Amino acid sequence: MKLLHPQNPTGNQIDVILIVGMGGVGKTTLAQLIYNDKRVEEWFDLKAWVCVSEEFDAYRVTKTILDEITSSCDDGKNLNQLQLKLKEKLLGKKFLFVLDDVWHKRYDVWEALKSPFTSGAKHSKIIVTTRDENVASIMRNVPTYHLNILSDDDCWRLFAKHAFVNTCPSMHPNLKVIGEAIAKRCKGLPLAAKTLGGLLRCKLDADEWNKILHSNLWDIPDEAGTILPALRLSYYYLPSHLKRCFAYCSIFPKDYEFKKEELIRLWMAEGLLQFPKENGNEEERGNEYFKDLKLRSFFQQLSGNKSCFVMHDLISDLAKSISGEFFCRLEGDGGSCEITKKTRHLSNVQEKYDVLKKFETLSKAKSLRTFLTLESSPPSCYVTSQIMHDLIVKFRRLRVLSLAKYCNITELPEEIDNLKHLRYLNLSQTSIERLPNSLSTLYNLQTLTLFYCKCLVELPKDVGRLINLQHLNIRETKLEMMPQGMDKLKELRTLTDFVLSKQTGSSINELGKLQHLCGRLAISGLQNVVCAKDAKDANLKDKMNLKELELIWNEDDRIDDDDSKRDEEVLEQLEPHTNLEHLVISFYCGTRFPEWVGRSSFSNVVSLCLTDCYYCPSLPPLGQLSSLKSLSISGFLKVVTVGDEFYGHCDASRKPFGSLEILRFEDMPEWEEWFSWRDEAFFLLQELSIRNCPELTRCLPEHLPSLTKVVIENCGKLGGLLPKAPSIFQLELERCDALQLEPLPCGLRELRIEDSNVNDSKLKKMMQRCTRLEKLTMRDCYNLRSIAEGSLPNTLKQLNIDSCRFLDYSKIILYTSLESLDIVGRRCYALKSFPLASFPMLNRVSIKGCEDLKSIGASEGPHRQHLASLNSLEICDCPNLISFQIEEGLSATNLTSLDFYSCVNLKSMPEHMQSLFPSLVHLSIDDCPEIESFPREGLPSKLNRIYISRSDKLIAGMMRREWSLQTLPSLTRFSIYHAREMESFPDEHLLPSSLTSLVIWGLPNLKLLSGKGFQHLMSLRELIIGSCPTLQSISANMLPNSVSYISIRNCPLLRKSCEKEKVFQVIEMFYQSLDSIDLKNLQNLEKAEFFKLLRRISRVWTLEISILDVAWSSLVLPPKDLKTSNAGNSCLQNKAHGDASVVSVESCVSIIQRLAVAS
């Protein structure tokens, strides 16, 4: 922990700590101990844990970190989008990230991954665990902690901890002797000691222990050298039912994160949880099996996500070794195993485009029982439709079928009823709109998962025939009603949503017969319940295993008394069981809440959200909920006071809101007064947020000893002092000038003031006691004129100033502790120059909209040597900036990102960029028309991405080869936009061979793409061309075979310039490597060309075409799943052809109505 302590600075922006040791020695366990240490919560603002494994995927790692620190799931379209979001979230925050099990030593991937990390606060930490000490070479000089094996004594103690439960080893001296001998054979590896200890857990028979000690399995050689004898033993002596369940886990790749519930449902589907009927249900048995394997250390719980589990690498190797030919994994990194006629269970690690070649040997597995897609890094994936057809038509023994996350799947074929044995079907995150009614004949189906099927509008009308269905997940769909007969699904345990409609469909009373429901249930459309008795018949009160309940009335114009009374009666009858933990009530139109809402018997409720209950004049007695931790109240338009009714019947022995940690009030326009309950309520409250309550005048509760975060926005009449809370460290204030803020709490670390009348003297008084402030944001503070010396504490690290148009920035240079600085001007005329080198600690600078800014540079002064801290520099909308100069010798050695936008008078970049910015990775210049060239010495060699737009003089210099682009070995992405003078591109050997992506957009005079300029680009995968209205020719032999994606948009003159050069000839020539084609607004393409294309694109998964201004009288051999959009009166039909999965034909203005479609 010394290396993590904030009082142990290293001078680095980010400190990387390497833990090195052999497999099973305890690297992950040590990292978990550090990660879960309480002191980490005090020292760091954010933390995240990522299992990296053998494939170091920057996209997946970035996404996992972002999801963890935001507690949400973010499906950014590409790495750059995710990194921009992550950069924003990390800004000024001190973070701890753990990258567990790193294998790769690729410097370029590490550089790409760490790019957004630099926006975090100094002394942020990254812990890396690895078996390979050479990993340190890509991270440069980092402290390395070598984790050695355990001594025999320590190994025995760890073994004994897992083997003896509720008993002391000394009470069993005979077992102690045997156990010590077993521990010695574990050779100091904690994983071996834990698994063998777990195997003998609670077994006190010496014969059992001797079997392990004297087993021949200790001496069996392992040819691959990856399976520890102790692990082989731990499997061999498992009960047979656990052996089967564990072997099934070989279907998961290394470090794959799985949820307990999902694994148990897969076991169920495969018939691995057989049991006598009188001994409970399958899932209970599955939970027992899972617990047993976890206790034996076959599964490990993730530190970052407690709902997920992984298998240690060595355990994963064990599972693979014992599963043999029956299990197979298809992986894109070359780690796939061979499919044979013995293969029964197949998992497919998704790639962006899962092509037919990947599955070409699938036909060998004629008895396939499992086809399971496993999520990889791409945000959306595509699969050849031939695979879905084959799986459903040819593999009739399937029990498990998962096609989740293939966004080009829009329907299931009627032949789905071929899969009579199917028990598990997952279509999550597909674009499916409807399910065929034939699916209702799959009587063995147990699990149907349709999560995030955003296009799904209805379920099969006979879904009630699925009598064995236990789990139906329809969260985040667009279902408008539930089909009749839902009450027949008597085995149902998971029903995430129940949608009520005015149309004929399931009534709410059908829920009454679903006695086994557990987990989460959201009931929407409650305004369509006509009779309160139907709500009572839903019998929620007896559903003791429901943990989350959402009751939703759709927002509409219902305002009459009858509607209000009916809502009250319905809610009265929807009382849940007292085991409930989470409750949401939305758009309720009653004028009062029933007595059960807030009743003290609901002692398990930990979160409660009441939103948009417009007509309730008072709040229910929620203070009586003894376990309530999070409370959100919003949209109560009629509430005027909050007082005793809110706290309920409490006394000195039972104080109201005794467990509450988060309290939010929002959008309550009539709320005027908040009466406190003595000084003893909200004793544990940590976060208080009040937004958009403009009439609130009475003071906030005064005594909140645990409060750490306060947000008050648009509460202009709220007066008095802030609550007395010594621990407040984050304060956000917007349009609340009546509050008395002088002085602010002494422990404050983050402060945001927005749209405030704060002036110079008031700011200084506010800051008198803020001796720990690290982040300050001021926006729209028009009365602020200057930040005088002493106004801000020396601890300030991050300063954001937005639209404080009269502020004099000259004194900012006094605050030399700054690490991040954002200045957004918006008609700001006060900032004339920016002395970059006056900030010794500054690592990030963003200056926008400062119209009078004329120069940026390293001025004379005592801190001229400190530009090494600078990592990111962004200058936007500064029209009078003419000079950006950094003197040689003041190099910004850590600068990785440089952006200039709309600096129309900037004439040049600094000389000697190679030596000044040796670490530069990203360079973006947009709308800087006066920059003529880059330095003669060339650009930094580590540049990975270049974006140039609306900078004609600079682009002209590129064409004269003044940039020396071809000498940049790391350049992979090059984008050129809005170059008015360019007529052909690219010249031969202008671009480096390392390029993977090329974007050419908005070149109004571009006529020709030169084939010679492309021939040496053997790494190019993506070519995007757009808005080039005069482009007439693409050389048919110009592209390398590596290209997998072509997009051509808004190039209306692109047509044949001679008999041998046609745009479709290019596509035909490279159709073997293309995954996706996107052609839009190409008015002059000929019908014959299109027909020829359709015959050749048999392996292209996505084809998007629009604005085809041709007169077609027939359409021959269309690809599968031909989609039409705004196609006039055209009548297009879907017919099978090849493997193309998505064809989008948009705005085809001249297509003749009668189209003959070949069958």
UniProtKB/TrEMBL annotation:
Residues 12-166 form the NB-ARC domain. Residues 508-635 form the R13L1/DRL21-like LRR repeat region domain. This is Disease resistance RPP13-like protein 1. The keyword Ubl conjugation does not apply. Residues 251-319 form the Disease resistance protein winged helix domain. GO terms for molecular function: ADP binding. Keywords: Leucine-rich repeat, Plant defense, Repeat. Gene3D superfamilies: Helical domain of apoptotic protease-activating factors (1.10.8.430), P-loop containing nucleotide triphosphate hydrolases (3.40.50.300), Ribonuclease Inhibitor (3.80.10.10), Winged helix-like DNA-binding domain superfamily/Winged helix DNA-binding domain (1.10.10.10). One of its GO terms (biological process) is defense response. The keyword Transit peptide does not apply. It comes from Durio zibethinus. The gene is LOC111297649. Signal peptide: none annotated. Pfam families: LRR_R13L1-DRL21, NB-ARC, WHD_DRP.
